[in-house]
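Q: Could you fold this chain for me?
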Amino acid sequence: MEIARALICSYVFSWIYILSSIPLTLSYRTTKVFNFAHPVFITYGAYVAIFLNEFLNKNTPLFIAALFSFTTGGLIGVLNYLLIIRPLHQRGASPNVHMIATMGAWFVYQYALYIICQVLMKLRGASFLSYPSVEYVDISYIQRAIGLNTPQYIVTSTTLGLVVILSLYVLLNKTMLGFAMRGIADNQILATLCGIPRDKLMALTWFLTGGITALSGILWVNFSGSTTPEIGLHVVVINFAAAFIGGLSSLLVTALASAALALTENIVFLFLSYHLGLQPTIRLAIVFGVVFTILVIRPPLGAGGGLPYRFRTRIGRKVAGP
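A: Sure. Below is the predicted structure, expressed as structure tokens.
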């Protein structure tokens, strides 16, 4: 029974991590900016669904939550690009400066959300700092119509996940817009000389990044029994690990790594919980352990050293001689 539960959790978390990890890789591959404000998209996507659920008297359809979350995340992504990333790029700022600036933006958005939650708590009398799971009425209706007794979060994650992945595949591989985005990712100077509007495509990339990542948030609130403004911290650590495994370039490897990490997290937690009686708070330690291992063994694109990279470097120096 516990194994079955762990596998179900792994399946749902796989979709949550896939929808939040792929945009991270996509944004870096296209813009060459590692966005430390990425958790904002997840958290705000989740809280848009929560606010809708509260103000619509718990009668929120999935497609309405997805539309509002996607739009909110996308607008935040474009806002970050226009106010932070583009000005820094125009001034020739280094990648480290971009990372620090986006990290600062993360804290601003995080505390802004706390303020919003506290204001709404006074207006509505409901606790938004630890909100229970959200059920989507259209998914419930479909389940009743076809007599499907599967937990709603399985249906929701499968449906939304497949729609997003297939849509993104078609966009990137079957449209001129996707070819232009790939051209910018491969060689920005050459793409600009060919007439591709770099600035517009960058803004579009950040809109897609924020929008798709926000959709992972509405999957979280459908599955989790308690959503807090800190959910982005847990999810984004897995996102970073999956993106590193994908070399910050491969969307397919990033997706596969997300699923593998979800399975690892849940199976390891089940083992530690069963044999040592550890509490769910150990999950974050497991995730950080995975990230540390990846950074040491297989850093992205050989960056930062890494044991295999250093080993190959020493061998190359010995062969080359003094």
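A (continued): Residues 46 and 217 are 4 Å apart (CA to CA).
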